[in-house]
Specification:
It contains 23 helices and 31 strands. It has about 850 residues and is α+β, with helices and mostly antiparallel strands. Keywords: Membrane, Transmembrane, Transmembrane helix.
Length: about 850
Amino acid sequence: MKRLKSILLEDKFRLSGIVSILISALAFVISGYLPTETAFIFFIISYGISTIFCVAVMTKAFATYRWKMSKGKIEYTALLLVLWFTSAFSLNKSMNVFNNSSTWLSVYICLASLSIILCTLQEAFNLFFRHVLTFFLAASTILFIYFALYLIPLYPLSVLAVIVLGLSLHTFIPLFLSIVALAFLVRFYKKTPALKYTIAFGLFVPMLISVWFTIEWSQLNKNIKLAQNHNSLNESVLPEWVEIAVHLRKSPITEKYLKAELVYTTPLEDRSWFSGNISSSFSEPKKHDPLVMIASLWSGKPELTQNDRIKILKSIYDSRHLAEERLWSGDDLETQSVASNIKVYPEYRMAYTEKILSVRNNNERKLNTDQEAIYTFHLPEGSVVSSLSLWINGREEKARLTTKGKADSAYKTIVGVEVRDPSVVHWQEGNTVSVRVFPCTTKENRKFKIGITSPLKKEGGQLIYENTWFDGPTAKNAEESIQLDFSNPPKQFDTDLKRQKNGKYLADRQYKDKWTLRFDKTELSNQSFSFGANSYQLKEAIAVPTAFKPTDIYLDLNRSWSEQELKTLWPHINQQNVYVFKEKLIKLTAENLSSVYSDFYSLNFSLFPFYEISNPENALVISKSSGNEPNLRDLENSKFQENTSRFFAEPKIFHLYQLGEKSSPYLKTLKEFGVFDYNEGNLDQLINQLEKSQFKTFHDLDNALVIPNAEMKVKKIEGNVQTTAPDHLLRLFAYNDILKKAGASYFEKNEFQNDLLGTADEAFIVSPVSSMIVLESQQDYDRFGIEESKNSLKNASIQSSGAAPEPHEWMLIILCATVIIYFTHQAGHFNKLKLLWK
């Protein structure tokens, strides 16, 4: 350390170069947290420092060696090139030559730059450290050569453009760094011949990694080709991409393979010096990864189409939100604030939550600043969206309800062609909804509100409120304000929200996505809510143990099952007919148990073909899921979907047991449709139920729909009773009614939608057949045939409670109000007559 200090103090010029690099690197790091236009100022700082040091180096070399400046110190040249290298990456933020570096590449670049800097001080280090330094320098040389080769197409243009402030000289920096790095390696070898093995090892490791990655990439291409061939030969009922997704080995390489061109740059893509590639088919920012570039160059691009790769990413890498179709970019958007207004009704086991989100556009470019915000909201089980608002010109505009097709058509026309203000919310499978807001401009934050009606989950003697969370524009810096109110406050519950004098609870904090509230349950209220000619009332729903001894058991096997679980379960089911499905039903025996498991343990997921069950009344399906797999809509128009739809078209009673709490989107949707009796628990609980031949079942009654997680049912009663129950009873009844009826004809788009749209419109809820949309003007609604709901609850609100007045009741209210106003106005005249009479 003393020697290093002595070297730096003796050579102040070298010290000034290192200090300049540190300042330039700091400016680069700071610019990463700033908008592109502001970051350009920090490039000017880096560029200025590089230029000043460049002039200083050339002046010093000329003063010492005159026109033989090549004899100047290589250490000074190396420091200068690192400065220019940093400046080049600063410039890349504005003039996109390389997309954002992948994480490992960013680390590699930093190590390469540090290696060059330390090489200028190598005489201060001992032999061991020089071995380490030489290894990293040799490895860095491969990186510099890669960058130099990548930039070859730009060399001719850069030579011609060199007169423009010299900016194009940045193109040649990797080439110069390659030469300097090789010069250092030659010098090190001549001074210490023993370093030759370290040099060879340093050069060999990056190349070995590249070869290994390329071979793996090639093997992926080969496996996919074979899977496509097998799928064609077997005439699978599933789409080709599903069969590939099932067997595709999950790994970082596989993910990069699937994201090639969508996220990662590949050879022969159109590149511009002034702007990066934008893919509207996938929302993840573009990245540069040399391993992907090299592998796709030598082994070819992925054999799958972009559309199929997106479907696979949605299914096995939880990228469903990123794959949402976009009409406009949303790269510069962030969620600036979230306000949650929550009203909990413990005596009705439900809650209504309003979330008001403010979206900020950080794009400072002068052109094309409008962007589209897309959110995926994850709702608690059984929840339904019951309101939507968009602020237009500072005024809250409430949504109208219409068919999903009309809402989608209106939104795409207005956003894609006319570029004006709409917002739309669509139902999605797996307890999610998607919300789109346009335009989000740089002039002001965009604000919208979504309202969710949710049943409270009952667990033992407690009720659980689960927060609705979202994927969308980043909320990492968002501030959240929460207001919580109870219709009937619990005596005690744990929360970090502070109680106010008015009885409400408030909190201001950093946004937190997943959180819950627990409190003791209360008895269900016998109050009802009335609308139209009907009333709606809550009753307890108890899962009754029902005698059931299956004769046929179907195991839905995949990689989430362990072999030990299967072996533990086997003695308790081996007296029944036990089947698994792989292209056809296979009967399990003690002899083939291990071999069958080995065929299934590598499957990423499974889509059980319920239509293969020959005797549903006596069947039990046992499933376990990792949580990610295709949903029903992904399978549309496949033979699997057609067979499944045909099977569920006629009501059937059979049992499904879910091991663990994770459920796939496919089974979640079927569960919502109520097509099977559902039980869940761990393996011990399953074995216990098998031994007792008892499975818990909720019994549906006429005009009553069960909400299992809340252990209650909503009963529809003829007649109108004026009470104070919230209107959310009708909303939950209608939503569950639609889901139950939709399951049998989910993919039928005519009668199915027309029959159920009236139910959705009355309760004013988002469902498989209905969406909410906010448009800018009445003319827009008229143009797309979106009428205002008449005999409907309309948008829910925090104040929604009690029975809604009927049309004739509204007339009576208006008449009474008119009479009161009239006599109040006339009272003044009567008083004047009295005074005159006296």
